Amino acid sequence: MNDPDGRQIGYLRLSLTEACQMQCAYCRPGRLRPSGRSNPLTAREIESVVRHLAARHGVHKVRLTGGDPTARQDLVEIIERIAAVDGVRDLALTTNGLVLDRCAADYRRAGLHRVNISLDSLDPDVFQRITGIDGLDRVLGGIDAAVEAGLRPIRLNTVALAGENDAELPDLVRFAASRGLEIRFIELMPMGPLQDRWAERYVPEWQMRRRIDPVAEHWRPLVAGHSSARRYGLRMDDGQLATVGFISPMSCGFCAACNRLRLAADGTIYPCLMDRPRGSILPALRPVFDGAFLDKLLQEALAAKAPRHPAEGMAVMATVGG
Asked: For the domain 11-320, what is the CATH code?
């Protein structure tokens, strides 16, 4: 399954819900208007889609996003069903980490391979300003629980915000290194609730690196492949080794290597995170699954996938999934 520029789709990012326990400043508007997604894809429908994409098109990587996927009561069942699909070699979850302290082991037993956990600050006050809740201790406990459960690799995601958490980047690197985890710093995108203030809050990759340089003795580039992150091995001034990635859609675009297809919780198709939706797969799932019709709907959507993402996003991150 290819797009018009010959990029082969091998990676499905599936948003399971718009619900989330946090109200992150860059992701979720103060009053997120319901999109009518009260009847999301069921666990069985998700399995049918993944099984078809793996068998027919070689999709081998699936990431569950949201909102926050842990808000789905049937998340363990969804993980079990996808993990049982032949051809899926990489099953990952992106989460705010709030429930991992009690659920990480269940997710691992169900077949989850790895997890990305949002961590935008180590300062409780800054964390609360960004996320809207007093939950830093729960997230830190969730990180420890994910390590204990054997989820590997664990990656921490930090959205850098000028004047908010950008001075913390060295401390966040040290935190990740002390636990043997990779950390990824993400450029703010001009979409969602901070879209109108993007220019004043945006921190480009080169500025992030400059923040980290005083504690880094050596940067060693790592192979990226289809990854959206530019990854480096760091030797730090205290002797610790760290793995740091930068997801830089605005300053160092990675569109040429994009192999992603995004589905929202209600089956809406997003060929690109920042572009508008291009139809829905629901007609191919209800009342019965129709693989040929699903292929037709997906190819029609992918035909609109542009060589590069638009200058500004057209959706809300909580709806599409990061």
From this structure: 3.20.20.70
